[in-house]
């Protein structure tokens, strides 16, 4: 009997507020709907509505059970999701006290049910004071990570940690009911879960193990438990199950393990997206009571009727889906891993097709063979560009090892040849992998090494009830659109709804699943440990059978957090013991018992293990890139210098923060918030000192204004828009640099990087975070660079020590060849030459007529400048197709149009190894620039566009990379003129259009619209007279018209957002802006839970600082009069970790 659809009365602690709603429901949502409070995510609403989380809320419903339900021998109340501390009453009798968000509860209710009206009451208690009180009363102090505005006691509540506030979101700490509420009546045993494991046998076949859990009536039960794969005739298993009354009384009963042998020849393998298909096979698990079997048999003997069978208990049935696959986490010495990844089955170094050009030497840009190709047999590893900062580079025209005049060929003394591996190695000398300490970390699915490309996913919303099926599906779709194949479910949020794992199974998304613990030590008293064990076992049984789940993690950053706090540093023995008991013995023990075939890591990051059987951790600095996975955050180093990134084996977190896109930020704020350093801006920045750290990074690469403060409101707004542009572009360039490096490190023997999961995919509010997709689903510029670097084929241009390197990276399981179009462009046409007269470009059958188009361009002062485009499209013909209908173009910095010839161009053909990275071109910058008279490092740039030949597994793919020889602030740019034209209605939800530049290059052009959706590419570079065609796709379920996009489209570019060279200077500290930031940070800093105070008083103290933050501006202005606030803000250390 479902109860969530009833009209529930909802009241607060003193009865002053009464609401009505069906379930799921959260009071904070209902109060907003009724107009009693504002949106808690609008402006300072988090502060103004915090009282809701500190109140007690009672949900009550009156229902009349059916006679049929009352007649059942057992009736249980099932609660699928209660947030978090609750007392549950049925007709005034206390059924249970709940305190775990992450558990489903089943409570016996039969003895308290009555005929007629019944009242179910669920009272929700505020989590904040309870957590604070428990922290104070613990026998010894356990520290908690602090964030701006958070409550530092989340580790004492089994409620999502982020709900107390994190450095990317608010701390609503709301209570409510997010799952179903129902009454379950039964006379015989009923199935409640079916846990499915699979293992590959030595003969190649699969063995399924199915372990069911059941509820049984007080008298017990006996019957037949069976499991069957209906699509595979004859593949089933069955066993008798007898449940004694004593077992039934203890609750869930675990049945015998049913084993089904599945011949490999009878099934198709399940593959990650991009590697194959995702076939899923239906598994039916059934419990049939003996009484039913006996009745059916008796009927057949008498007259074939089913009267007796109809009167007997019905079988209980559950269905699951199985994807047959194997998964392995490869942790082995680098020499062994290199042998597999670079010259064994995992690598594609053997290629019978010799690259075009054929020459081994590359003397200048005009006569190039392939760098690293030796005698048509072997590839070089990526080399000098990956070396340490003190590396030495060749400066002659000979551009690869083995071509030096006095060096020997393979097998001789050449230091680049690894005799043991039988392949060319990178920088460092012979037998490099043998001499490097460390271990690999990568996944193999069905025996194939997988380069993991993905991100960390956080909860879909601040309020669990708002995580609609549409939002979940849309988020997964955006991950796939960004070419991801793995998502890490972060330990500070929730175990995801079933729909998420179903979608991952269907679409081939691998899942790294953590249990819900993050960034601080946790208690280990008996009560807490029992609660955790019940939670984790329930979640393993629910999630563990999904083929998409390929690794379990015990926690996020708790091992490394032992280095963060004074308490853990001063008493390591105590906290290491606590850690080991919880994450290795308890959680690790459950993993070994229930999912031994699935890899498990007790923490992320970590140094892996010395042994898995028995499980022995490798203790030490968990950030050590030689072992395990790495979380990398460094806000001080130049993020556009690849040498500032570690040679990690697997990067499970990395990111750079930014604010949301302008339309999303605008919707959550008011105009007084649209100024750099305003209280409204800083309130939505939850990472200490981040505004100053980010601005310092911008100064490394861009020309900034001397002050971000405007003399008028309009001027302040213009500077805010300028700041936001820099904020987004810098994030994108940081990510592009890091990802490019780690993608090519897959083929460097001392790196062997095989995974990037960046922080973070999505957002829970319109505030600063590390996301690439903001709260309203819009892509920041960063996401387009993610999409580029995660393509199956990528070309990269790398500048290092005065040399230009070109790499290709391929995830294809077969080798191929690629055509490289190498071009040098000037940043401005010589003597202001006009572009050639273009013909009309048609974007499809519904192309717009050639009319003048108004384009809104954000100028240096933040104005929207209207420019009139030519009466025709800006280039002669559409870009030529690069392959057959199956062609897939990777997003790229747009290729030049045919009528915008570069200053210099060459085309060569190179070999592309399978599942590897290779360096294919190398030249000094001087060589490059000598190709074009008058070209200098500040007036020209290099573009490489690579197009592959299709293979059995991949279609033709195209990738483009631009290389600038100096920082953007040092480029000699002229003001560009950008026009739009060729608008076409490609589909009801998609409109495409052309962008074109006139005689000056337009760099880092960002298109934006108030419409919800995303472009296919963005942040493009347009050479003089160059063009790009972009497509805007509306959010799922919505449409867009040409008129709507034209009316809302704006463009921003580098020239319009950098200060002119003659007026730019390094900004001095702006006292008022810094003081505002410092005052907001100080006001929002969480106060530690002081011992001796009542929980209610503590809760009040939590409110105080946040309320003060809302009125911080007067205080900030006063602080600006003296140096202390400025000094305090400047002296805060830059934190290398994201989380504290």
From TrEMBL:
Low complexity bias spans: 884-899, 1117-1129
Keyword Hydrolase: yes
Catalytic activity of the protein: Hydrolysis of terminal, non-reducing beta-D-mannose residues in beta-D-mannosides
Any single biological process term in GO: glycoprotein catabolic process
A Gene Ontology molecular function term of the record: beta-mannosidase activity
Region (Disordered): 859-899, 1117-1140
Domain called Beta-mannosidase Ig-fold: residue spans: 973-1055
The protein's name: beta-mannosidase
Alphabetical keyword list: Glycoprotein, Glycosidase, Hydrolase
């Amino acid at each position: 009997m479902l109860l969530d659809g009833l009209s529930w009365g909802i009241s607060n602690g003193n009865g002053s507020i009464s609401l009505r709603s069906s379930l799921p429901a959260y009071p904070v949502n209902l109060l907003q709907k009724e107009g009693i409070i504002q949106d808690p995510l609008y402006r300072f609403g988090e502060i103004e509505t915090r009282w809701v989380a500190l109140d007690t809320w009672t949900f009550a419903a009156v229902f009349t059970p059916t006679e049929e339900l009352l007649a059942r021998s057992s009736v249980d109340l099932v609660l699928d999701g209660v947030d978090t501390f609750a007392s549950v009453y049925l007709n005034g009798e206390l059924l249970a006290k709940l305190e775990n968000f992450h558990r489903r509860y089943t409570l016996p209710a039969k003895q308290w049910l009555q005929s007629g009206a019944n009242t179910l009451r669920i009272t929700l208690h505020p989590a904040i004071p309870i957590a604070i009180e428990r922290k104070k009363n613990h026998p010894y102090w356990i520290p908690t990570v602090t964030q701006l505005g958070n409550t530092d006691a989340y580790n004492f509540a089994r409620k999502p940690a982020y709900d107390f506030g994190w450095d990317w979101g608010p701390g609503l700490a709301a209570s409510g009911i997010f799952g179903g509420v129902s009454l379950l009546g039964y006379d015989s045993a009923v199935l409640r879960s079916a846990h499915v494991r699979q293992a590959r046998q030595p003969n190649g076949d699969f063995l399924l193990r199915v372990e069911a859990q059941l509820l049984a009536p007080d008298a017990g039960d006996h019957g037949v438990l069976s499991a069957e794969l209906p699509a595979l005739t004859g593949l089933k298993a069955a066993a008798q199950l007898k449940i004694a009354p004593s077992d039934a009384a203890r609750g869930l009963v675990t049945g015998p393990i049913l084993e089904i042998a599945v011949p490999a020849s009878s099934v198709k393998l399940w593959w990650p997206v991009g590697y194959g298909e995702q076939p899923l096979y239906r598994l039916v698990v059934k419990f049939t009571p003996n009484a039913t079997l006996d009745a059916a048999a008796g009927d057949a003997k008498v007259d074939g009727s089913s009267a007796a069978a109809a009167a007997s208990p019905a079988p209980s049935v559950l269905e699951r889906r199985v994807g047959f696959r194997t998964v392995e986490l490869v942790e082995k010495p680098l020499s062994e891993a290199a042998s597999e990844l670079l010259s064994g089955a995992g690598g594609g170094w053997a290629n019978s097709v010799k690259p075009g050009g054929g020459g081994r030497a590359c003397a200048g840009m005009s006569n190039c063979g392939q760098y690293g190709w030796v005698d048509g047999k072997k590839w070089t590893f990526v080399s000098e560009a990956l070396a340490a900062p003190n590396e030495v580079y060749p400066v002659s025209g000979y551009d690869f090892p083995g071509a030096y005049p006095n060096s020997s060929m393979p097998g001789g003394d050449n230091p680049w040849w690894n005799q043991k591996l039988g392949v060319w190695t990178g920088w460092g000398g012979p037998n490099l992998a043998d001499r490097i300490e460390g271990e690999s970390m990568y996944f193999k699915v069905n025996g194939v090494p997988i380069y993991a490309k993905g991100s960390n996913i956080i909860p879909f919303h601040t309020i669990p009830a708002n995580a609609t099926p549409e939002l979940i599906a849309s988020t997964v779709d955006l991950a796939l659109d960004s070419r991801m194949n793995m998502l890490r479910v972060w330990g500070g949020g929730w175990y995801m709804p079933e729909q998420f794992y179903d979608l991952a199974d269907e679409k081939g998304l691998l899942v790294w699943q953590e249990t819900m613990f993050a960034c601080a030590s946790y208690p280990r008293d008996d009560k807490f440990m029992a609660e955790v064990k019940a939670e984790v076992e329930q979640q393993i049984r629910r999630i563990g059978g999904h083929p998409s789940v390929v690794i379990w993690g015990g926690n996020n950053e708790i091992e490394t957090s032992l280095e963060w706090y004074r308490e853990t540093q001063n008493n390591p023995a105590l906290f290491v013991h606590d850690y080991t008991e919880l994450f290795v013995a308890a959680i690790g023990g459950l993993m070994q018992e229930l999912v031994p075939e699935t890899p498990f890591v007790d923490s992320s990051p970590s140094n892996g293990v010395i042994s898995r059987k028995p499980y022995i951790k490798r203790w030490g600095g968990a950030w050590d890139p030689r072992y395990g996975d790495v979380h990398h955050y460094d806000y001080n180093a130049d993020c556009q210098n690849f040498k500032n990134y570690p040679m990690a084996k697997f990067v499970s977190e990395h990111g750079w923060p930014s604010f949301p896109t302008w339309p999303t930020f605008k919707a959550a704020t008011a105009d007084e918030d649209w100024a750099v350093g305003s209280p409204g801006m800083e309130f939505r920045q939850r990472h200490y000192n981040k505004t100053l750290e980010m601005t310092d990074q911008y100064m490394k690469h861009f020309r900034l204004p001397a002050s971000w403060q405007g003399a008028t409101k309009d001027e302040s707004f213009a500077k805010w828009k300028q700041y936001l542009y820099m904020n987004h572009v810098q994030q994108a360039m940081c990510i592009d640099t890091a990802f490019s490096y780690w993608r090519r490190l897959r083929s460097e023997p001392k790196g062997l990087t095989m995974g990037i999961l960046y922080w973070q995919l999505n957002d829970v509010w319109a505030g600063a975070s590390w996301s690439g997709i903001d709260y309203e689903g819009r892509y920041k510029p960063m996401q387009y660079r993610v999409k580029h670097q995660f393509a199956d084929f990528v070309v990269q241009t790398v500048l290092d020590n005065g040399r230009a390197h070109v790499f290709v990276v391929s995830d294809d399981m077969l080798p191929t060849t690629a055509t490289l179009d190498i071009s040098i462009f000037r940043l401005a046409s010589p003597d202001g030459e006009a572009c050639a007269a273009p013909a009309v470009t048609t974007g499809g059958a519904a192309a717009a007529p050639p009319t003048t188009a108004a384009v809104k361009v954000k100028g240096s002062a933040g104005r929207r400048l209207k420019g009139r485009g030519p009466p025709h499209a800006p280039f002669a013909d559409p870009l030529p197709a690069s392959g057959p209908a199956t062609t897939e173009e990777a997003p790229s910095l747009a290729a030049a149009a045919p009528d915008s010839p570069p200053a210099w161009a060459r085309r060569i053909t190179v070999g592309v190894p399978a599942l590897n990275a290779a360096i294919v071109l190398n030249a000094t910058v001087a060589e490059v620039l000598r190709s074009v008279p008058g070209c200098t490092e500040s007036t020209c740039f290099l573009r490489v566009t690579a197009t592959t030949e299709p293979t059995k597994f991949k279609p033709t793919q195209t990738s483009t990379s631009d290389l600038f020889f100096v920082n953007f602030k040092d480029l000699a740019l002229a003001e560009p003129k950008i026009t739009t034209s060729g608008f076409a209605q490609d589909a009801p939800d998609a409109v495409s259009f052309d962008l074109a530049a006139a005689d000056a290059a337009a760099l880092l052009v960002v298109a934006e619209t108030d419409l919800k959706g995303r472009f296919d590419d963005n942040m493009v570079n347009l050479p003089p007279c160059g063009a790009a065609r972009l497509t805007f796709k509306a959010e799922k379920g919505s449409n867009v018209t040409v008129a709507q996009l034209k009316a809302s489209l704006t463009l921003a570019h580098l020239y319009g957002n950098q200060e002119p060279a003659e007026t730019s200077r390094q900004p001095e500290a702006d006292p008022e802006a810094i003081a505002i930031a410092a005052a907001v940070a100080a006001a929002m800093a969480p106060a530690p839970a002081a011992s001796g105070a009542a929980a209610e008083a503590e809760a009040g103290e939590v409110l105080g600082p946040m309320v003060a933050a809302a009125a911080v501006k007067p205080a900030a202005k006063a602080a600006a009069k003296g140096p202390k606030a400025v000094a305090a803000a400047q002296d805060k250390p830059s934190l290398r970790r994201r989380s504290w």
